[in-house]
Design goal:
Helix content is 87%, strand content 0%. The protein has one helix and no strands. The chain starts with 26 loop residues before the first helix and ends with a helix. The relative contact order is 0.03.
């Protein structure tokens, strides 16, 4: 907000010093007396004029401020009224849109549930049919599997016996080879210890 412009400065003309009067009944003394009176009157008029100007300026700028304040108050009231109208209109529109949205959501939800129910019932029927077919296929496959397992088990038992006998023979051979290697290592170690002891005795 702009401040009030300063009041114009009124400069007063100072009154001249009173003349030195000489008490002689001459024309000059009378003239000086009249001149002093005129000077005093002029000074008084200057002071009254300056006071009047100050008062007029104060009233003018005070009136300007009042008009400015009143105009601003009217603008603010108008702005508040407009804002209130817009807010009420916005709230009304929002309520209408919300109600329409809720109605559409309810409609779509019901349709979705109806469709889901139909699909679920169809799925359950299909699942039952497929389950029965699966059980029939599983029964046939189980019987075939049992027959195959019996055949394979007999073959496996026969092969396991052959492998066990072969393993026993191989294990015996490995045992004999291991014993021979251990004996050779024992003799090598005894011979090495003997050589080390003899060399240590000689030195």
């Amino acid at each position: 907000m702009g401040g009030r412009p300063p009041a114009p400065r009124v400069e007063y003309i100072p009154a001249p010093p009173p003349p030195v009067t000489v008490s002689t009944p001459t024309q000059s003394l009378q003239t000086q007396t009249e001149l002093a009176k005129l000077t005093g009157e002029q000074t008084r008029l200057n002071m009254e004029t300056g006071a009047d100007l100050d008062r007029i300026n104060e009233e003018f700028y005070t009136g300007q401020d009042l008009r400015r304040y009143r105009a601003r108050g009217a603008e603010e009231r108008l702005l508040s009224e407009t804002r209130g109208e817009q807010e009420r209109a916005t709230i009304g529109t929002t309520g209408s849109e919300t109600r329409l949205t809720r109605a559409e959501e309810g409609f779509q939800t019901r349709r979705t549930r109806e469709t889901a129910g139909k699909e679920e019932r169809a799925t359950i029927g299909t699942t039952g049919t497929e389950t029965r077919r699966t059980r029939e296929t599983e029964g046939a496959q189980t019987r075939q599997t049992r027959e195959t397992e019996g055949t394979q088990e007999r073959l496996t038992t026969q092969t396991r016996g052959q492998e066990q006998r072969a393993g026993i023979r191989e294990s015996g051979s490995e045992t004999r080879r291991t014993a021979l290697q251990q004996e050779q290592f024992r003799r090598y170690k005894e011979n090495r210890d003997f050589q080390q002891s003899r060399d240590a005795y000689k030195s």
